[in-house]
Design brief:
Two copies of one chain form a homodimer.
Chain A (H helix, E strand, L loop, with lengths): L2 H16 L6 H8 L3 H4 L6 H27 L3 H6 L5 H17 L1 H13 L4 H28 L8 H21 L4 H18 L6
Helix pairs in contact in A: 1-2, 1-4, 1-7, 4-8, 6-9, 6-10, 7-8, 8-9, 9-10
Chain A binds a DNA duplex through α3.
Chain lengths: 206, 206
DNA sequence: GTCTATAAGAAGATAGAC
DNA sequence: GTCTATCTTCTTATAGAC
C-alpha cells in the first residue's frame, strides 16, 4: 500500500481516537510501520498531515454533495425511489442510512475527529455544521417537500419535519459512537421513531 | 477569589476551548495570574486538575438529578406547572431551557469539554450520554406521559415523543456552540419546532 | 525512502529561597 | 503560597548515511 496514503489512514485513526494534540508523530509512524523521521519525507510537519486529512475529507464531502445534487437537486431520482413510500420503506431507509454512517470506517473516523476538533477553529466548526446539520437537513427537507406535494404526507413545514426526522437519528448515532454496546437499543428506538414520524405526518388521503 | 477554585475555573475554560492535550499548565497558571510551579501547591499534577473538574461536574450533575427527582419522580411539581399547558407555554419552556443551557457559563463549558473528551475514556462516554441523552429523555418522557394521561396530548409512545422533542433542541444547541452567530436562526427554528410538535401531538379533545 | 543520531525546544514537575 | 532556577522527559523536526 502507498505509504503516503497509509500515513493519512493511521493518523486519521489516531486523531479520531485521541484528538490531534494527544497523538505523537512517533505513534503515527509506528502504526505505519516506519520510524518517525521517515514521515517527513512524505509530509513536512504533523500539521501538514492533519491538513491533508482535511483536504481528503473536503474532497469526499464535495463529491458526495455533488452526487446528491445531481440526483437530488430537483429530487428526480429520489422522487422515483419514494413514489410509493410506505412506512416499512421509510424504516428501511432510516436504518440503512444510520447503519452506513455508523459502520463505514471513513465516515465514522471523520465524524469522531471532527467532533473532537470542532471548536479548534472556525473552518472546522463550519465544516462540521455543513456535514452534520445543514446538508442532511437540506436534502431531507427537499425530499419531504416532494412527498407533501405528492399528497403522501400532511401539509406542514418541511424544514421542521426534516429537523424532527433527522435530529433523533443523529442523536442516536452519537450515542452509538460513544457506547457501541448500545447499538441494538438505539436501532430499536430508531425504528420506533421512524414509524411514529411516518404515522404522525401521514397524509389524510389514505 | 480562592486560588484553588480559580485554577479549576481557568482550566475548565481552556479545556473547553482546546481540549486537555492542547492546554499547557503554563497557560492555566497565566490565566490564574501565577507561575506554573505554584499550581503544584494546589494540585499534584495536570491530570489532578482535570479530575477535580470532573468531580465538580459530577457533583453538580448529581445535585441536579436529585433536584429533578424530588420534583419530578412522580411529576407532581411539574404536573402543576403543565396542568394548563398551551402551545405558547411549551414554546416558552423550550426556549427557556435552550437559552439556559446555551448561555449558562458552567453548563456551556462543561458541555464543550465533555464533547471534546467524550471518546477519551469509557467513564466520560457514559457521563456524556447520561447528561445529554438518558437523563433529559427520562425526564421529558415522564412529563409527556403525564400530559397524555391528562388528555392534553395524543395517546402515543412517550419515549419516542421525548426523543422527537428533545433531539432537535439539542442539535440546534450544538450548532450554536460551534457557531454562536447562528443563534437567532436556531431560536427561530426552535420555536417553529416546538409549535409544530405541540400541534402534531395535541390531544383531539380541544 | 528508510534508517540512526541528534538537535532544539517545549512541557510537566521538583527544589528550595522568600 | 508564590517565586526563580532547574531537571527530566517528551516531542517535533533535521542531518546525513545507506
Amino acid at each position: 500500500m502507498d505509504t503516503k496514503k497509509k500515513i493519512l489512514d493511521v493518523a486519521l485513526t489516531l486523531f479520531s481516537e485521541k484528538g490531534y494534540g494527544n497523538v505523537y508523530v512517533g505513534q503515527i509512524a509506528e502504526g505505519v510501520g516506519i520510524k518517525a523521521p521517515s514521515l517527513y519525507k512524505h509530509y513536512k510537519s504533523k500539521q501538514d498531515i492533519f491538513n491533508a486529512i482535511l483536504d481528503e475529507m473536503r474532497e469526499r464531502y464535495n463529491q458526495k454533495a455533488a452526487d446528491l445534487n445531481m440526483n437530488g437537486s430537483d429530487y428526480l431520482a429520489d422522487s422515483e425511489l419514494y413514489k410509493n413510500v410506505s412506512e416499512d420503506e421509510l424504516v428501511k431507509m432510516g436504518i440503512g442510512l444510520f447503519s452506513f454512517f455508523l459502520h463505514d470506517e471513513y465516515e465514522c473516523k471523520f465524524r469522531k475527529m471532527l467532533t473532537i476538533e470542532q471548536f479548534s477553529d472556525r473552518e472546522l466548526s463550519k465544516l462540521f455544521s455543513d456535514q452534520y446539520f445543514d446538508e442532511p437537513l437540506k436534502y431531507q427537507s427537499g425530499l419531504l417537500h416532494f412527498l407533501i406535494m405528492q399528497g403522501k404526507m400532511k401539509e406542514d413545514d418541511a424544514d421542521i419535519m426534516a429537523l424532527q426526522f433527522f435530529a433523533p437519528i443523529y442523536l442516536l448515532m452519537t450515542v452509538c459512537d460513544r457506547q457501541p454496546k448500545r447499538e441494538k437499543e438505539c436501532l430499536r428506538k430508531l425504528e420506533k421513531h421512524v414509524r411514529q414520524f411516518s404515522r404522525i405526518y401521514k397524509g389524510d388521503d389514505k
